Amino acid sequence: MRQLLRRGSVVLVILIIICYALNCSDKKFLDQECEGCFRFSVSFSGSGTRKQLRDIFFVDSANGWAVGNNGTVIHTDDGGITWSKQHEGGGGRLWAAYFVSPDMGWVVGEDDIFLRTGNGGDSWTERPLAGFNLTAVQFVNDREGWAVGANAVLFTDNRSVTWQVKTDTLPPLYGVSFVNRTVGWAVGSGDPKIIQTLNAGGTWLPVSSPADQPLLDVDFVDILHGWAVGVGGTIIHTEDGGATWAKQTIGTHYVLHGVDFWDNNSGVVVGDSGAVFTTLDGGENWHQRVSGTTNDLLKVSYIDAATFAVCGDNGTILRFNYAWDDCCE
């Protein structure tokens, strides 16, 4: 979820304009990985670890982080091409990372783990949160942030020096997405599977959902448009801020672990057994991509309008790109 940090989809728009100018829409596609006049490619990035990587997050087109088992934190400053280790140890599983700038970021995980950095990860401060197993985190600015997990929704307004428990009576939560300081959603298992706040977490209300399986991730690109994914190939979408949700057809029964949208049209979903699906029309049509791996893929993050990165089991990091090519004739 990068709705607070995204730039406009300038690259994608320019490529679309070029494609139509050359009348590519009526040409023959050379192969299934060619969509319009964009060639879709994938490359493996050496992560330097065999640990399971649970989350990946890019704050800009250069700087990204991936986190996972045994306190592993790795960083890239070249858009995901190369990675270096920043933190390891502690025995716990790190579930999620979020950065508001190339310097300031937070990581949460199981067994009371909470890490904070103010220098891009060169050093990390450990701030244990006793009694909380956290699975997702998001900050809406450099002071105010949210963390959710198996047993609570937490809020901070002082850069995580202290946290307030907003509620501890909900089923397990696995994803959180805020579009501004006051409006946000969280998803999980049990009943309800979706909750929403309209008053900065003062109250969280259940939202009716067509999903009958646990939801594992959620991403809103603005106050109206959002997607959530989960078990059994579940993907649901809202166009009215979560008031109503509808299922989308993605063509798999694999567990879907991660979703990220760049804008209302361009999105990616990842899941078990190397599953990667992309859409360029807001999910009306999803296309499965060749990932080159059977490892379970757990999270995805856009790097820029035409590039995204995926992380997963066995230290897997993949880098995908849409690029102009002579893909139609």
Total number of helical segments?
1
Radius of gyration: 19 Å
Name the CATH superfamily classification. Answer: YVTN repeat-like/Quinoprotein amine dehydrogenase
State the low-pLDDT regions, or none: 7-32
State the end-to-end CA separation. 36 Å
**What is the typical, i.e. mean, pLDDT?**
87
How many DSSP-defined strands? 29
Q: CATH top level?
A: Mainly Beta
Helix coverage percent: under 10%
Q: Which word captures the global form?
A: globular
Largest sheet: 5 strands, antiparallel
- Order of strands across the biggest sheet? 1-2-29-28-27
CATH fold title: Methylamine Dehydrogenase, Chain H
| Relative strand content | 35-45%
Helical/strand content category: mainly beta
Identify the CATH architecture: 7 Propeller
Number of domains: 1
The string of secondary-structure elements, in order, is HEEEEEEEEEEEEEEEEEEEEEEEEEEEEE
